[in-house]
Amino acid sequence: MTDKEIDLLAVCAWKENRHGGIPGMTSIINVIQNRVARRGKTIEQVIMAPWQFTSMSVPSDHEYKLDSETSTGIDLAMWHAAQHLAQQASTGVLVDLTNGSTLYYAPKGIQTTKTIMLPNGENVPFPQTWNPKAVRYTCTICDQHFFIEI
């Protein structure tokens, strides 16, 4: 993994889920790595694909303009943690908390008329453009639901 890829992992994890702490940022890196492995793409191709990690590629996303260099307090602490997690990923020691997931979403952050029932019986919002028959639920981490494509 190049220094640029390590930095991209850290920035994306930090922007996407720094409020989820270590587990939240780890889960983002896990999804990126799982997509790279499954889809045969580079880290940059996965992260910068349109509408995938919107904090990285969509200027209207409120996280898009965040800059770790001007961060303070807990955001700065989470930035340092994201860098450490990305380093762990680069050496192959970062544990996959997502059980191989390639997709995730925060139910609070989507507008949809679709729902899906989780294994615990809870009905939750489901992304409008996803096919529920093409994914399998794997886990919930920091209020985000994770799925693997089947």
The biggest beta sheet reads: 3 strands, antiparallel
Count the DSSP helices: 5
Structural class: alpha+beta
Distance between the termini: 27 Å
Helix content: 40-55%
How many beta-strand segments? Answer: 5
Which strand-content bin applies to the residues? Answer: 15-25%
Give Rg in angstroms: 15 Å
Shape descriptor reads globular
* Mean pLDDT score: 95
Uncertain runs are none
Q: Looking across the biggest beta sheet, what order are the strands in? A: 1-5-4
The helix-strand sequence is HHHHHEEEEE
Compact description:
The chain has 150 residues and is α+β, with helices and mostly antiparallel strands.
Describe the SSE topology.
Layout: H1 3-17, H2 21-39, H3 43-48, H4 54-57, H5 73-90, E1 103-105, E2 114-117, E3 123-126, E4 135-141, E5 144-149
Antiparallel strand pairs: 1-5, 2-3, 4-5
Helix pairs in contact: 1-2, 1-5, 2-5
Textual characterization of the structure:
Strands 1-5-4 form a three-stranded antiparallel β-sheet, with helices on one face. A two-stranded antiparallel sheet has the order 2-3. It contains five helices and five strands, in the order αααααβββββ. The radius of gyration is 15 Å and the shape is globular. The mean pLDDT is 95. A hairpin with a 2-residue loop joins strand 4 and strand 5 (144-149). 31% of the residues are buried. By secondary structure, it is of the alpha+beta class. 41% of the residues lie in helices and 16% in strands.
